Amino acid sequence: MTNSAPTTIDSFPPGSDHSPVVSATTKNTPVAEATLRRQPTPEPTVEVNECCLVQIYPADVITGMLLLEEDEFSIGRSPDTDLPLSDSSVSRQHAMLIRGSEGYLVRDLGSTNGTLVNEQIIESDCVLRSGDTVRIGSFLFRFLSAGSVESQYHETVYSALTRDALTGTMNKRYLLDAMEREISRSTRAKTDMAVVMLDIDHFKSVNDTHGHLVGDEVLRTFGKRVGDICRTDDLLARYGGEEFCLLLAATGREEAAEMADRCRRAVASAPFETAAGPLEITASFGFAVLNPNEPATTKGLLELADQHLYEAKRGGRNRVCG
To answer: Where in the sequence numbering do the catalytic residues fall?
Structure first.
């Protein structure tokens, strides 16, 4: 096996003149320490038989396209692997991608936390299909197969720039842009809008007791349960850590309170299934409503909702304040 550095190809999502891309990662530099640079680049060009991995989580690290040029490609915490990942949840020799007759397959190398394909732990060699996700510890990659790289790359990168890959919700940057537009629209149209801050109760104790991978499971389940309650026009985003934000267009105070309580009940309705067993999880909610007749800013609305969130925390948690 040749221990060569993975090649990165810079590109950018449609509609932007410049996109954040990352210079080639050397073999001894952890992916999590990659640095961003900006430059205009051409469309990605690859050979028809080339496959790649695109890192989509952590969301603040965009490594570009990691071409798989070797018959065997190792991933682990050791600097001797082809893709070293500096993360305690990654084993030193964690997994191997192997080129076979059907394309690339992934093999777990007896890692502590396992290798997941499409969020399912693999028990044996697993053939990768284009669009599959591969989770190594807390890192999440999307596999793009030969022949689909150019068609799926921009969509994959754009999703990584706008969505939180762990939970599937939108990210903070997308939320703030959407709030700016919705405040302007609601003010012009003289209509209500509301913003809800959501925070998982005692989340730190989940991480401290069961580890960050179980914490990630809780975050994913939380995002799905709340997302299932949301209406078509609602926007759910991960604000940071265990805190989420819900943007409700054309929604007044009573409806916002009702919506927040529906989400609260959905979270608390049944234990969260995790690798550590079922966990009882609750969340606290604080909301603020825009008065279209008074000037308001995104920062002001979020701060007001956050104040109400902390009222809910101080009042005993698992409640809604606003």
So the answer is: 242
**Same structural domain for residues 134 and 215?**
no
298 shares its domain with 186 = yes
Give, in order, the Cα–Cα distances in Å from 109 to each of 68, 277, 321.
18, 25, 49
Q: Report CA 60 to chain centroid distance, whole Å.
A: 10
| β-strand pairing of 72-76 with 83-84 | parallel
212-228 burial, b at 16+ Cβ within 10 Å, e below that, comes to: bbbbbbbbbbbbebbbe
Q: Is position 213 within any domain?
A: yes
Mind listing the pLDDT tens digit of every residue in the chain (322 residues)? 444 444 443 433 444 444 333 333 334 444 443 333 333 444 444 444 578 888 888 754 445 568 888 899 999 999 999 999 988 899 999 999 999 888 899 999 999 999 999 988 999 999 999 989 999 998 889 898 877 766 676 677 677 678 887 898 999 988 999 999 999 999 999 999 999 999 999 999 999 999 988 999 999 999 999 999 998 899 999 999 999 999 999 999 999 999 999 999 999 999 999 999 999 999 999 999 998 888 899 999 999 999 999 999 999 999 999 9
Q: Coil, strand or helix: which one is 318?
A: coil
Q: Which domain holds residue 122?
A: 51-161
- Same domain, yes or no, for 157 and 280? no
Q: Would the pTM count as exceeding 0.70?
A: no
